[in-house]
Amino acid sequence: MPDAAPLWATVVLPVALAVAAVVAAGFDAMLSGSAERGPAGSVREAGLRALAPLREALRLLVQRPRRTTAADRLLGRLGVVLVPVAAVLAGAVLPWGFRAVSDPSVGIVWFNAMEALAWAAVWLAGWGPNSALSLVGGYRFLAQGLAYELPHMFAITTAALGAESLRVGDVVAAQDGLWFVVWMPAAFVVYLLSALAMSFWGPFEHPVSRDAAGGAAAELAGVDRLVFLGGRWLLLVVTAGFSVPLFLGGGHGPLLPGWAWTLVKTVAVLALLVAGRRALPVLRMERYMEVAWMVLVPLTLLQALFVAVVVLNR
Amino acid sequence: MPDEVIFWVLALVAVAAGVMVFRFDSMARATYALLTSLLCVGGEVLLLGLDYLGVVIVLMMTIEMAIMAVFMVMYMMNPAGLMPMTMVHNKKGAAAICAAVFAVLAAGVLLAPWPSRRGRPSADPTMDLGLSLMGPQMLTMMALGLALFATIVATVVLATRRGRYDRFGDDLKARTPDDAVRGGTGR
Amino acid sequence: MDLRGALRRTAMTRPAVLAVTLPGATELRLEAEAEVRRRGWPVVDAPAAADLLVVCGDPASDDTPWLDGIERSMPEPALRIVAGESGQLADALDTARRDLIDKAATRRAAEVAEVAHVADVSDEPGGHEHGDHEGHGDGHDHTMGEVAGLPMAERGDDRDELRLDRLHVPIGPASSDWPAGLVLRLTLQGDVVQGVEVDHLPLPPSPRLPFWDEPWLRAAHGDEVSRGSAVRRRCAAHLDSAGRLLAVVGWDDVAARCRRLRDEVLSGASRESIGGDLRRTVRRVERSRPLRWSIAGLGELPADRARAAGVSGPALAADGDAHDRLLKWLHEVERGLEGLDDARPLAPDDRTGPRGRLDGPQPPSRALLDILPELLTGAEFACARIIVASLDPDLDELALAPVSGAAHA
Amino acid sequence: MSLELFLLLAAALFSIGLFGALTQQSIVMLMMGLELMLGGVIVGAAAVWHYIAPAAADGQVLVVLAVTVMAVEMVVGFAVVTALFRSREVDMTDMAAELKE
């Protein structure tokens, strides 16, 4: 059962998330490296490639910040900083084993509210520099938000419905026997899609994609860029990690202790997302929007209905 | 004691941001000042023990303001506020009216004999709310649902200029809609 | 050595590269891409993210202002190098890295530079200001004109019958995955392209033949060219175009594979060594339903319209949208695999280059440029980029005088 | 903290919102004033629930109502602005009034 986590967990949480983000980014860099330069010949070479994100972070720290003419620096800065902050705040309800930093009675809604902050953040980061392409990127994320948010909400509501509670700890407890992914597969898949969309990463990186010279990040340099793009990885880790308590049974599992199961499952989900990214081009919202509203929304509603009927008859 | 401090901080920020909404030249800043103010309102609601409603207010207002920013930039003059300008009418009269309204409200608040607290909040107010909406307040819930549905229909009708005859031809027989942008379901 | 200094040095051991290619420097671009990739330096797409600006080609004096603009909008420590001739690039990059490390190590107290430009720098100030628009009636005493030296947007009718702000945004010549030297002056409303003006950097008369068309042109001049080398060039050209389109579509993985294959084809890899990899990549693109879903219907160019516009080559043969053109390229590449090592001489009257017939009244890329406005108007920005990449005009060809034999074509 | 303090905050937000709604020419800005007013209503309703009748859910229902009204009001406002803008390029109340003449 959920216990309150000790105070030090508050400090450890951002660090743990950052480490996970670096590991995930390193894995991604290794896969990209083998696409660009062929398979790594040696373990050392592979290791060097995996270090690329850290090297990149150091490089950005050394870069001097820059600003653009007539920029709205206050809002731009706010947007940049809000991305990692939203990720960490959402991570506060993420149970590690059976303990989260905080397990409020409406944890699931809290998680959703914090990720909605990313909407505001990306738009602000795009608006701030007063540049056409970065504003285009900011708007793309709003469109993306409109497309993914509704199916996403229904997906996580389905998990809450299955557990008859909005508390994350209760959702984990309800999966003691059967994981939710078994009887809510549609919600799980939709959740994974929206996890990518929310962290505007991979197939959903249109707001920061190359065709608009980096979109919302087009004018960010130095530390700003590091915080923004690093925050994106944090968001990915948090949203991927949250699928574990929601659908994959949290810390439940044989033999290993709860924290180990959480770790294993989170790594598996992240690896799936990072590797799966290779198979997909970027999904543009003008196409995805229709799919989201015409297919995914009814699908998640049916899933929720099914779960509701099961819960009522149990 | 911490509650007291949080209350005052949130209250002052809410009021200050509320004032700034109408003082910023930049539409983006005005929108986000309003968001700040409403997030503080959400915080106060959390402080009063309504966890669910407080978080929902945070969630909804964030999304609402993010979308509002689009419309602001789309339709407003001078969205970035690069040129100082005023777009108000009847400022003095309005200020007088608002001061009077505030004075009356404040007097009412301070002078009214508020009844003392009856009952205790239940352990889970969210549950209360749900039971109430699905029970005695069912009518409210249904009315809200209908209103939201009517709003969706009405706003789409208002905002779009294209109907199904424009999209599927006069006899509605076209297999794919004639849209400016091709959608994703391949119809 | 202090720790901070050491960290600064380490940070710049792999500087981020922004490569800008000038018309006529395709060969240098390929060399630069291969060299940067070999070193594992990050390649970025905006000046804000870059440390090192690599200019491929010899900049004319007209090019200086916009190149300066890009350099100014790069965050310190920043450096620009010009790769004017092939074979010197490795040394130039080594020197640049050393300079960057020195620059980073001797950094002064941070003073923030103010840059006046957006990611895409053109040779004239573009109206990239999303600011005020024309007066809304009376009673508002504000003046129109410029703010902070930037012109204001004005309003105009748009696709959805809303009169919204118009932005004039020049795209190119420094965009990544973009035809070298091409400048499109877009009129954007939101991110919908409402108007396009096709322009390009000045094309200096060059003694060099357009890289992608070289074998056929040399054969036309009477030089002995083997069929194999012509096929190699065509395959590499198509792989280059496909890689570019896939990069714009955002499928980085396969784009990188196409580019690696392109370099291997050019460097003379045998059919056996690359055949398997190439076929796998082609199959992968062919079978990808998400890719088809994503770009089908973009830039529809039926054959009759293409022919009327003077388009020849794959864009005509594909007879369809961006996805068809991509598959056309890849199928031609796959077909060419057989003839990679064909030593027979190329017939002098074979004038079908990678982008179309070289003996027409105008170079094939000219026709591709001419149909751009028609295809781009009304498209969204992302779609416009995809359409341009799916046609991939080669501006080197514009400098080409009509090939002898064109008179009776 | 007391009921009075919360209600004073609610009154302040309401009055600021009213000021905005009365003075702003732009329809979108006017809506922002309305949103602020409703924000005041929310604080008031929640405070009354907490300090007077915590056992009943009526206060909470009022908050739900206010939040819904905010959403509806905003959506309708945008739709009206879009429609007006499409037909007349008008986004201000004064100008919409002039159209009547």
From TrEMBL, chain A:
The highest taxon in the source lineage is Bacteria
Q: Report the subcellular localization.
A: Cell membrane; Membrane
Q: Which parts pass through the membrane? A: 6-27, 74-96, 116-139, 146-166, 178-201, 233-252, 258-276, 288-312
GO terms for cellular component: plasma membrane
Biological-process GO terms, alphabetical: aerobic respiration
Listed GO MF terms: NADH dehydrogenase activity
Q: What Pfam family does this protein match (any one)?
A: NADHdh
Location (main, coarse): membrane
**Membrane as UniProt keyword:** yes
Q: How does it sit in the membrane?
A: Multi-pass membrane protein
What are the protein's UniProt keywords?
Membrane, NAD, Transmembrane, Transmembrane helix
Q: Does the keyword Plastid apply?
A: no
Say which family it is in. Answer: Belongs to the complex I subunit 1 family.
Q: What is this protein called?
A: NADH-quinone oxidoreductase subunit H
What is the species of this protein? Streptomyces muensis
From TrEMBL, chain B:
Instruction: Report the GO molecular function annotations.
Output: NADH dehydrogenase (ubiquinone) activity; quinone binding
Membrane-topology annotation of the record: Multi-pass membrane protein
Q: Where in the cell is it found?
A: Cell membrane
Instruction: Name the keywords, alphabetized.
Output: Cell membrane, Membrane, NAD, Quinone, Transmembrane, Transmembrane helix
User: Where does the protein principally reside?
Assistant: membrane
Catalytically driven reaction(s): a quinone + NADH + 5 H(+)(in) = a quinol + NAD(+) + 4 H(+)(out)
Q: What is its EC number?
A: 7.1.1.-
Q: Which residues cross the membrane?
A: 6-24, 31-50, 56-75, 95-114, 134-159
- Which cellular component, as a GO term, is one annotated location? plasma membrane
Record flagged with keyword Transmembrane helix = yes
The Swiss-Prot or TrEMBL record describes its family as follows:
Belongs to the complex I subunit 6 family.
User: What is its biological role?
Assistant: NDH-1 shuttles electrons from NADH, via FMN and iron-sulfur (Fe-S) centers, to quinones in the respiratory chain. Couples the redox reaction to proton translocation (for every two electrons transferred, four hydrogen ions are translocated across the cytoplasmic membrane), and thus conserves the redox energy in a proton gradient.
Protein known as: NADH-quinone oxidoreductase subunit J
Which organism encodes this protein?
Streptomyces muensis
From TrEMBL, chain C:
Stretches the record annotates as Disordered:
122-141, 340-365
Give start-end positions of Basic and acidic residues composition bias: 125-141, 340-358
According to the entry, what is the taxonomic lineage of the organism?
Answer: Bacteria, Bacillati, Actinomycetota, Actinomycetes, Kitasatosporales
The protein in question is named Uncharacterized protein
TrEMBL record, chain D:
Provide the topology term for how it sits in the membrane. Multi-pass membrane protein
One of the GO biological process terms: ATP synthesis coupled electron transport
Q: Spell out the subcellular localization from the entry.
A: Cell membrane; Membrane
InterPro entries attached to this UniProt entry: NADH_UbQ_OxRdtase_chain4L/K, NUOK/Mnh_C1-like
Q: Which residues cross the membrane?
A: 30-49, 61-85
**What is the enzyme's main class?**
translocase
The molecular function terms of the Gene Ontology recorded here are: NADH dehydrogenase (quinone) (non-electrogenic) activity; quinone binding
Q: Which reaction does it catalyse?
A: a quinone + NADH + 5 H(+)(in) = a quinol + NAD(+) + 4 H(+)(out)
Could you tell me which Pfam families the record lists for this protein?
Oxidored_q2
What EC number(s) does this enzyme carry?
7.1.1.-
The record's comment on protein family reads:
Belongs to the complex I subunit 4L family.
What NCBIfam families does this protein's entry cite? Answer: PRK05715.1-2
State the function annotated in the UniProt record: NDH-1 shuttles electrons from NADH, via FMN and iron-sulfur (Fe-S) centers, to quinones in the respiratory chain. The immediate electron acceptor for the enzyme in this species is believed to be a menaquinone. Couples the redox reaction to proton translocation (for every two electrons transferred, four hydrogen ions are translocated across the cytoplasmic membrane), and thus conserves the redox energy in a proton gradient.
Q: What's the protein called, per UniProt? A: NADH-quinone oxidoreductase subunit K
Q: Which organism is it from?
A: Streptomyces muensis
The primary gene name is nuoK
